[in-house]
Structures are given as structure tokens and as C-alpha cells.
Amino acid sequence: QQLQQLQQLHVPPAVPEEPGAHGRLRGGDAVLQERRPEGLQVSSGLQDLSLRDRGGRRRDFHDLGVNTRQAMVHVQESKTGFSGRMVKLSTNHFRLTSRPHWALFQYHVGYSPEMEARRLRSALLFQHEDTIGKTHAFDGSILFLPKKLDNKVTELFSRTRNGEDVKITVTLTNELPPTSPTCLQFYNIIFRRLLKMLNLQQIGRNYYNPSDPVSIPNHRLMVWLGFTTSILQYEENIMLCADVSHKVLRGETVLDTMHSIHSQVGEERFRDACAKELIGLIVLTKYNNRTYRIDDIDWDNNPKGTFRKSDGSEMSFVDYYKKQYNIEISDCMQPVLISQLKRRGNIQGSVALIPELCSLTGLTDKMRSDFGMMKDLAIHTRLPPEQRQRELGRLLSYIQKDDNVQKELRNWGLSFDYKSVSFTGRVVQGEKIFQSGTMFDYNPQFADWTKETRGVPLMRAVPLDSWLLIYTRRNYDVANTLLQSLFKVTPAMGIRMSKPSMIEVDDRTETYLRVLQQRVTPDTNIVFCILSSSRKDKYDAIKKYLCTDCPIPSQCVLARTLSKPQTIMTVATKIALQMNCKMGGELWSVEIPLKQVMIVGIDCYHDTVSGKQSIAGFVASLNQPVTRWFSRCVVQSRGQELVDGIKACLQTALRSWSKWNKCLPSRIFVYRDGVGDGQLNTLVNYEVPQFLDCLKGIGTDYSPRLTVIVVKKRVGARFFAEVGGGFRNPPPGTVVDTVVTRPEWYDFFIVSQTVKNGCVAPTHYNVVYDTSQLKPDHVQRLTYKLCHMYYNWSGIIRVPAPCQYAHKLAFLVGQSIHREPNMVLADRLYYL
Amino acid sequence: MDKNFPEESTQVIRFDPPLYKQRYQFVKDLVEKYRPKKVADLGCADCSLLWMLKFYSCIEVLAGLDICANVMKEKMHMLSPLPADYLQPSERSLTVTLHHGSVAHKDPCMLGFDLVTCLEVIEHLEESELKKFPEVVFGFMAPSIVVISTPNSDFNPLLSREMVYRHPDHKFEWSQAEFQSWALEAARCYDYSVEFTGVGQPPTGMEKVGFCTQIGVFVRKHPPTAESVQSEKPTEAVYKTVFKAVYPSLKDGKYLQNAVISEVVFTAQIIKHRLMSKREESGHDPERKSKFQPSMDSFSDYLGKLVVETNVDPFVRGHEVHVPLPTIFAFPKVNRLCGTFEKLCKLIAGKVPLSSDGSAVVFNIQHENEEN
């Protein structure tokens, strides 16, 4: 049986037979090309070049060539808003400049007789550096030069080691202007070359400076400072967008971690605990500069096991590492880690890795929940604006001062502005908060109205006439304290509250479930559980039962949260608000000037641990003030497209809307979150048509105005308000729709939230489809208004509320419920 | 498993593993045997051999020399330290340097090597360069061992190719007799002994033709006298350095200090953790000193057996846990890193919170309890 296990591993431990070989993952360029919209002239050869550089994954991370603005006539002239006051901003973009009349010359290089090996092709070509020059980029068939050769077709003659004469034909195929998409890819390749020249280490997509790490010995962590960079065509210029990035590395191997897990949990739970903690983590191998994701742990294997080499022979891991890297594996009892090699989502085989030779990178969920660790880490990673700009300045000065880098740039005829771009943005006026007929202003600096609305009746308070309070004997006191506090805070909110049925249980999941089965009636408003530990299985079981089999809103709170007398009133207030929303209550509103509008938010959750499910949360407004929401989700197993399910969601949402409003909405806004880098094309070409299709299916005379906006939280752009010669975070409500936006898109940035530490991240909004005929200013304002409507936070958040609701829903389903919740709950925010 | 015999199928001789790999393996075996500290590869081309050699822990200095800078540059970044080298700095130090220059020129950067390899290079040299080669390599560089490989023309008829030489750039290919007479002369002249061997076994029955690649291993007969090293060696640098990488090493104070601090804090935390869970078991009795028995603990296997007997125990005072430095020093990883207790104290001074008398690592546990 052991043998059979081993036979399955065909692929050697993904290490080159020779240094630098990247052979395995190449090929198949043509397929990628098919999916691109026409008019995009990115040569497959160049893609190959860029990917060979990175060694593996191929994906257009910048969504180049998805030109959505051209289809929207009303924003052809201008996509900028006008309201608000001006604010002077600087950013982390740096202009790339090229010589006047600069062009990049693209050549096709042919060999006669045909030569297969790329290295040989390069070697033969570069025998003629006197002709083609010293500055070149060549991927084996496409050659880029900064100069034009004398003739359109140049014939060169070389001789191979075997004495074979080869004719090389270099044909000029293209003269590329600085703004061509191919050139953009080319700039990025050249820039990566520069970073390499600066001796920065590549980990994943970014480059890090290993020589000056910050070590945090308390947690055995090491933080490397590095940079994420991309060069793109922005509104008027080609610019480098550079941001500081931190890589958290751990000074221990996977084997070390396994040992410490073993000492913590003991033999019995060891394997489970390892799987839980290690699967999904990214490891760095000791012997080459590659990163792998741990997909599985093979406990039946060990370093003495064998794998099949590419030539078909069998070799043990111990021998392999000894022979290839002179590495002695000291522990032959350790299991073997399995990493799947994926190419565009398809598994291409797997790689076996030895725990002892793998270093961990990044943080585990367990570490993320360690408050102390995150605090220690934040000191180093949350850089305030001033410091962030200083670090960026350092990168730029490295580039500026390094002779080799400057020479390379000069040879290509390129250079950078070493001062970041500055421009003016707008700060739109703050929104007024309405709650029970009263209007509140709040300090826009803080983006929070907790204080202002404290003790004010809610917009719609749902009474607690019949509810259950479930607790363990140990938490009897806590339960009573909570109850008293709730009785104190609810009257001011206008919530009528009766005494709950107090139910004492022992601390077992089955007991909780039995009590729920016996005591929940159709009249129950809500079930309140005080949990004594953050054990996920109990929480999951309760949520699963009350979201699917017996659809009743529920509130779970950890006893610990309620045990501090100094905070109990604040906590009780928050809980009261949350319960009210879960039962269909409303808290506050902002002015929404549009009539008959339905606002939709979509976000996705991908189960990283089991990798089996994807969940899309779908949330749509139901009423005019957008205070009530219809919520559904789509659960898809791997390989299925989420879009079909989303279409069904939209249909039911429209039905609900018409039930509530006695008509169909005349405008629909879709805020689509959870779109990964490089997926924009799919969204535009598949998902948007499905939305339209769905609307068509409602009725022949029904054609509402549709706006689809892609929301992106993870963007490289950072903005800094220039205040008194220094840099500050821009205030909430800052809108940027010039200079650093993309010319081919109808897009803008909004900084809606505030942060206590570090730099605020703007959210990017890309309107990919719009028949609303609204001015950009109105779309921006509406978007900002919606950031005020998330009821779990009495302040402004990073994304429009429906996106955050959709995220919450998808997360709950993905983490705990794993199937679609009961539709009875759909008109309430039961997942808050 | 290593079949050094060529497969003779329809006249074409193929070696398995390929000949170039056999040459590399030959050098690797030599490195295993002699464990040289400083190794130079003349004509290092794309640095493949250097890349393989960087994994040998005996080597502290690696140098490459080639007449073509571009071919070296193509893959030179393979010789850079990897992230893991920074994460777990090695005990040895390693510097890798690539030079652009000719084996016909003397440069002081090539002095003091233990092993110099020169695989498939001499046959590319012009007559004038070949003439200077022995003086430069044996006379000037004068390493303890020199390995020179070159094609054996006696073998060529078996290769059944139409060309005169195996590579168009070859200026000559020597028979066994030619190579051996050249080598013996050089050895005699510069006081080396030489042994001949090779890789690429001839087919059975044709042993006479010798190895496909012939190799001479030259060993210097006498250690150079202090004088000969000092005197008459020119100090003028003629090679151009195209690449230099200094690997992080525990020999460098900065890395050593980081490693020690990390290990000390980590060890102390495990001891503290252990102490606290013991106290929990035995009920909260702040006065009671817990008995510390590392050999019984499940984690002790992980940290290793104590290398020094210690009877200083960790203890709790008020809101502080004290883990005495001698206890920490007794653990093998810390012990090996620091060597002496004094060094331990010096390295962590000011970097790790210590008790007022500096005898113990101190943790404040007041806030920890609040968090939970």
C-alpha cells in the first residue's frame, strides 16, 4: 500500500534539474489569447517573457485591454464629478518618461534550420551583439530593441557547438509607441529586471529587501520591507505605482511548527491540528526561490519515500536532496507536504515537499486572532503617511543612485520622475444622518456618529416579546447582568422588551440543539445564546440549525465579552442594535434622492481550507430609503460558475422588490465586490450580459436602467493630503477621478473610512456598465451615501453597505452553514 | 545506479548521465573528499558548477572567472542568497564573486585558493593564451589542487561525427599522450604532482582509447612558503568584478545577535508557558516554587537535551515571570549559538527585557491575564 501511495507522485519536488530551468509550466499561450477581447495586441511571446521572469503563473493582473468606457457615451467627454471642496493630494505614482519620438522595436526572430531550445536560440542570436546592440529583451522568438536595425529584414549567420551553420532572420514586425499595451508589459518586465539588479528578493509578486529585516523575536517573526510595483497607462501618463509592502516570514520550518503543535495538542489530535494549522499556508523552500501552497499532508510518506523523476527513474527524497543540493535531511520520520501545481485553475500534478526544508510565510488565522501579536506586528507594518512616503522615497533613491540600473534605463531610453505625482481631489460634503425624524450632523473627521445618536429612538424598533436566553450554569451571573443592561438601554431606543425565557444548559452542542428544538416556537422573535468558549463547532451547529431547519434570528455572544463591568453598557447597546436589525428593524437613514431604485451588493467567499465551495452573497434593497434588504446566497461547488446562481438571485430580488413597492424598480445599481485581479474581462463579458438577460426575462416592456460597479478594496494606490508641508491621510469623502484613474474605464476612488493607524486605503470603483444616464458626480455621491448604511457600525465604512452585508452573509454561510439559508429569513439582516 | 558506460546503439554513443553532468559530479566528489574552503572555477560560463558548489558547507569562498561577461550575467542571480538563507543564516560564511577576465592574466583576487577547476577550457585558448596558462594557474594562483579537463581526441573516432573538433570554437583537441605530456611538463615546472583520469567510459573492448573527457588532477607538492606568497605577486587588479554576493552568516555579528535573541526569547517563552500551566494545575499558589523538570516535558525533545546541568529554576514574582539565563543557556540551541555564557549576556543586553540584576529574562504576565 505504501508503494502505491508513492507511485502517485510523478513530479519531482519541483526543483530544476539545472539551475534556472522553468520548463514544466510553459506552453499553451494560444488558449489564453482566445479569451481576450479583440483589438488587444499583446503578443503571446511577450507574455511568455514576462512569465518566464516570474516563473509560473500567467494572468493579466491589471485587466489591461478591458475597455468598458467606450461603450458608455455619456462619459466619453468627461467622467469627473464636481461637488465638494478641493483638496491638494499627492500619491504613490511616479511618471515614466521616455525620450521624444521614443519607440520600441519588435522583431520576429526565425532560425533556419529550426532550433528548439530557447537558450540555444538566445546564444546564437547574441553572438551578433555588434549588430543588434547590448540592450535587448528576447524570449526565444520575439526580440525587443530600443533601436531600429538598418534593414527591415536582417540575416545573421551563427554556428552551433556542433558546428551546424544556422541562419537567423530578424524581421521588424512592429514599431510600438510608448502607450501600446505591449509596451506596458514590456515596462513591467524591465522594471522587474531593475528590482533584481537592486538585489531585492522576489517573493510571490513583490520584491523585498532582505538585508534589513525587522525581527520580532517574541513571536519568531521576521518582517521584510518591500515594494509592490506596477506600471500602467493612467489618465494622461504612464506611471509607476509603487507601494510599500511587508512580508511576514517566520523563523521556523514547517517541521519546527509540527513539533510545537505536537507538544501543544499531543499525539491524538496531532494530525488534525497540523492539517488545520498548515493547510493553505504558503511555504518557501530552502533550496530554491519558490513558494508553494500546502494543499495536503501525506502522513504515509516520509523522506525515505521515492518519487519518479522526469526521466522516469525512481529516487528517494533523501538521496535527491543530498545529490542535488548537498542537503542532509535529519528527520526521516517527518511526513511529506503535498502542493498542487495549478495552471489557470486546473490541477497539473502535485509536488512533494519536505517539512524540514520549508519555511513558513504569512500569518495563520490563529496568529491573526492573537491580539498581542497583531499589535506587535502593526507597529512595523502600519506605516503612517509620512513614513510610508519616506520608504517609497528610499526605493526611488535606490533606483536613482544605482549605476547599473540607471545604465539599463538609459539604454532603453526611459526614465522616471523621482517625485510623486500631485493633483487636486475633492472632499464631498458630509451626509446627514436621519433617525426617527431627527437629523444629525457628525464630525466628518471621525466618520462616526455613535455619540450623536446615542439614546435616540431607532427608525424602526422591533419589539422583543418572545425570546430565549440560553446560557450555561457557569454564566448565570453574566446572563443576568446582560439582561439588566439590556433593560437599561432598550427603552431609549424605543425597543419594547419582555423578559426572555431563561434556559440553563450544560455546555454541550447536543444540549443546545435539543433546547432549540424543544423551545423555539413560530412566535419566537430571537434566540440569544451566551457561549462559554469560542469553539467554532458549537457556534456553527446553532447557526446552521437556526438559519436552515428552523429559521429564527439568533444572537451568539461569548461570555467573556459580557464579563467586563466597565464595558457592559456599551456592549449591551451594540447587541440591542444588532438584534433589532436581525429581526428586521431599521436604525438610521441618509437621503437617497433617486426614486424607484434597487441597490444590489454582491461579494464572494472562497473556502480556502477545503477548497470545495465558493459562496456568493447577494443583497438587494427593498425600500425607498434603502434601509431594508433582501438577502440570498449562492453556494457553488468547485468548477461551477457563480453567475448562474446570481442570475436567479436577481430574479427573486426583483420579485420581492415589486411585492414591497407594488411596481418594479426603474433603476438598478449593482455593486460587485470580490472580483479578483484579472477577472474583470470575465465579469464584463459573462456576468453583465447575464444580468441583462435576467431583466429581459422579467417582461418585454421592462427595461430598467442598469449600472454595474466593480468595487475593489485591495488597490495599490494611496493618497496623501498635503497639510502644512507634511502628509496626512485624506479626510473621509475624498473623491479622486483624475490623473490616477484609467482612461479606458469609467472609474473613481473614494476614501470613505478613517483609520487610527497607518495609511487609509482608498476603494476603487469601476463602472463597467451604465445606462443610468446619471452624471458621474451623482454616481459618486450615491456610492458614498451607501457607505453610511451599514448597521453594524455607526460610522462610514470602506465599501457600500450592500457589499459589506453580502460579505457578511457569504462569510457566515461559507464558515458555518455551508448551504443556502432558509428563504424565510431573506428580508432580515439575520447574518449580521 | 550511475551508469558511466555509454549506450552503444546504432553507432551513436550517448552517456548517461550526460558527460557534462559526469564532469560536475567529478568535481563534487573531489570537494567531498578534500573539503576545500576556497574554490575557483575558471571558465565558469553560466555558473552551473558554482551553483552546485554553493551547497557544500565546507566552501566559504567561491569565485568564477570567464572571458565572456554576458554568459555569466545570464544566470548569475542564481548565486544570490535565497530568502531562507536570510531566515536561517548558516554557520559558515560564504562569499560568491564573479570576475570578468582571462586565464592568461594574473589578478590577486585569485590567490590563496584550495581548489581551482578548469573544465573544458584549455581547448578554447589561443596559442599565446595557452602558453601563459601554466604560469598563471600553477605559478601565480598556486592553489593546492587544480583540476583540468579537456576532450580526448583518441575517443573522437567513436563519436562518428563529420567535424574535426567537438566544438567549432575548439582550437585543438589533444590525444591522451599530448595532454599528459603537457600536464606533466606543467607539473614538473611548478612542483605539482598529477594524476590522470576522466569521465565517459569507452565501450567494452575499446578501453585503449581512454575516457571521452580526460582529466588531470594536480596536487601541489609543497605548501607555499610565506615568502613566495608575499613576494613578487603583483597587486594590480585586472579582472572586473561583475557579481558579488555575501551570504548571511552567524559569523556576522548582526545575524548572530538576531538569531540568539530569537532563540533566547523563544526558549524562555516555552519555559514560562510550561511554568504557568504547572501553576494552573497546582492551583494558584504564588509562593510555591514550581519544580522544573525539563527532561520530563514533552517539549524538551524538541528543544533538545540540556547540555549543562542547571539547578536554577524559573519563578514567579508578583506579576513577573523570571527565567534565569543559566537555565536558558543550558539548552543546546542557545548554547551552541553563543558558546560562552558571557557572550550570551553580551548579545542580548538591551534587546531582551531582563531582571534588574541582569540574571533572568523577565515576562510581565499582568496584562496577559486580562486579555483572557
Automatic annotation (TrEMBL), chain A:
Region (Disordered) residue ranges read 1-28
Which InterPro entries does this entry report, sorted A to Z? PAZ_dom (IPR003100), PAZ_dom_sf (IPR036085), Piwi (IPR003165), RNaseH-like_sf (IPR012337), RNaseH_sf (IPR036397)
The protein, known as: Piwi-like protein 1
Q: Per the UniProt entry, what are the Gene Ontology biological process annotations, in alphabetical order?
A: germ cell development; meiotic cell cycle; regulation of translation; regulatory ncRNA-mediated gene silencing
Q: Which family does it belong to?
A: Belongs to the argonaute family. Piwi subfamily.
Per its UniProt entry, which superkingdom is the organism in?
Eukaryota
Q: Which cofactor does it need?
A: Mg(2+)
Cross-referenced CDD domains: PAZ_piwi_like, Piwi_piwi-like_Euk
Report one GO cellular component.
Answer: cytoplasm
Q: Which GO terms describe its molecular function?
A: endonuclease activity; hydrolase activity; metal ion binding; piRNA binding
From TrEMBL, chain B:
Q: Which residues form a coiled coil?
A: none
Give an example GO biological process: siRNA processing
From the record, give the transmembrane residue ranges.
Answer: none
Reaction(s) catalysed by this chain's protein? small RNA 3'-end nucleotide + S-adenosyl-L-methionine = small RNA 3'-end 2'-O-methylnucleotide + S-adenosyl-L-homocysteine + H(+)
Q: What is its EC number?
A: 2.1.1.386
SUPFAM superfamilies per UniProt:
S-adenosyl-L-methionine-dependent methyltransferases (SSF53335)
GO MF term list: metal ion binding; RNA binding; small RNA 2'-O-methyltransferase activity
Q: Name one GO cellular component term.
A: cytoplasm
The entry's keywords: Magnesium, Metal-binding, Methyltransferase, RNA-binding, RNA-mediated gene silencing, S-adenosyl-L-methionine, Transferase
Region Disordered, residue ranges: 277-296
Superkingdom of this protein's organism: Eukaryota
The residue ranges flagged as biased composition, category Basic and acidic residues, are 277-290
Q: What class of enzyme is it?
A: transferase
Question: Which prosthetic group or cofactor does it need?
Answer: Mg(2+)
The family database entries (InterPro entries) matched by this protein are listed as: Hen1, SAM-dependent_MTases_sf
* Matching PANTHER family: HEN1, SMALL RNA 2'-O-METHYLTRANSFERASE
User: Which family would the database say this protein is a member of?
Assistant: Belongs to the methyltransferase superfamily. HEN1 family.
Q: What is this protein called?
A: Small RNA 2'-O-methyltransferase
Organism, as annotated: Thryothorus ludovicianus
Q: Which gene encodes it?
A: Henmt1
